[in-house]
Amino acid sequence: MALRRSAEFPVPAPVAQARRRTLADRESVLGPLLLAPALLYVILLVGVPFVLAILLSFSSAVAGGLEFSWVGFRNFQVLLSDSQFHRALQNTLRFMVVSQLLVMVLATVAAHVLDAAFVGKRLVRSLLLLPWAAPVALSSMAWVWIFDSTFSVINWTAKKLGLLQGWWYWFGDPGLATVAITTVHVWRTFPFATVVILAGMAAIPQEIREAALMDGAGFWRRLFHVNLPMLLPVVAVAVLFGLVFTATDFSVVWLLTRGGPYNSTHVLSTLAFQRGILGASLGQGAAVAIFLLPILLVVAVLLLRVARRAEVGT
Question: In this predicted structure, what is the pLDDT of residue 19?
Fold first, then answer.
């Protein structure tokens, strides 16, 4: 009887046996395989130079030489008594704080303007990204002309409006040179912060916004009691990115002033380049570059904790 049923209803072969397993089915192999290029990239282009910089900071290595003598903390001790290093460290910290304050204020204003409905909003959003997308070498050439001591369009305009009696030598005065560097850096970085805040505003539930409007909350009340508290995690991440980018930025300062006048506008990145590459003292240049690492680590931990607490609170 059993033989007869098998002949009438043949049993199909199991699916697992009929279909061969491919690489896409093996998650334990596919995951590491896809991550390998990114990990290799980070290790070769970030990890290896970082470890090499730490080793160089404890050595007396010089450019063009193959000798590697271990000197312990001597490079750091020399820097602690170096007035030029003190000036560069102060400039870096001031540059980070002032530029990020300006960036976040401008980005918050721009994000709220671009969040409103008006004709040509898409075009304005596209134009806003130009400073971020433009090559820094190209935009710096334009800014060098704008702040030129002889042909400055700012000086000419202020002169025509009767606001300037003498003449501003932007790159010849330490204070004006600092203002010029901060202006260019803020102009270049605030579009990215604006995009981040716009993305955060899009995540605020529309019901909360409408409830605030129905309760009669004005613009400032909605801004400080609804939008900014809900944007705090996004703002903290944007500030963290901005601080790290500002602290490690080399191009704007070097292209505008090269640390001048009289080495008064150096930040740590340009001073490290001057000491390590131009001055051929790789050990001291690496020590200057490494010095900001603990400060950035503390700032990163604090900001991520703020973002975490704000996210949990919401």
Answer: 67
d(CA 296, CA 247) in angstroms, rounded, equals 8
| Closest to 258 measured CA to CA, from 275, 244, 270 | 270
Segments of the chain with pLDDT less than 50: 1-3, 6
What confidence score (pLDDT) does residue 15 get? 53
Q: Is 215 helix (H, G, I), strand (E, B) or coil?
A: coil
Query: What distance in Å separates the CA atoms of residue 299 and residue 305, rounded to the nearest whole number?
Result: 10
DSSP string, 249-289: --HHHHHHTTT-STT-S--HHHHHHIIIIIS-BHHHHHHHH
Place of tokens 């690496």: 286
Distance CA 313, CA 203 (A): 16
Residues 6+ apart with CB under 8 A from 74: 60
**Contact of 257 with 173, CB cutoff 8 Å:** no
**What phi-psi label fits residue 283: left (phi over 0), alpha (psi between -120 and 50 degrees) or beta?**
alpha
What is the pTM for the complete model shown?
0.82
pLDDT of residue 2: 46
Output the six-digit token pair for 274.
């001057």
Q: How remote is the C-alpha of 117 from its chain's centroid? A: 29
Q: What is the pLDDT of residue 74?
A: 92
Tell me the C-alpha distance between 110 and 125, whole Å. 10
In the chain, what's the furthest Cα-to-Cα distance? 115
Encode pLDDT of 32-70 as tens digits: 889 999 999 999 998 999 999 999 999 999 888 777 889
End-to-end CA distance of the chain: 69
Nearest to 140 by CA among 104, 175, 185: 185
Helices and strands, number each (H, E), in the chain: 18, 0
pLDDT at residue 129, as a whole number: 85
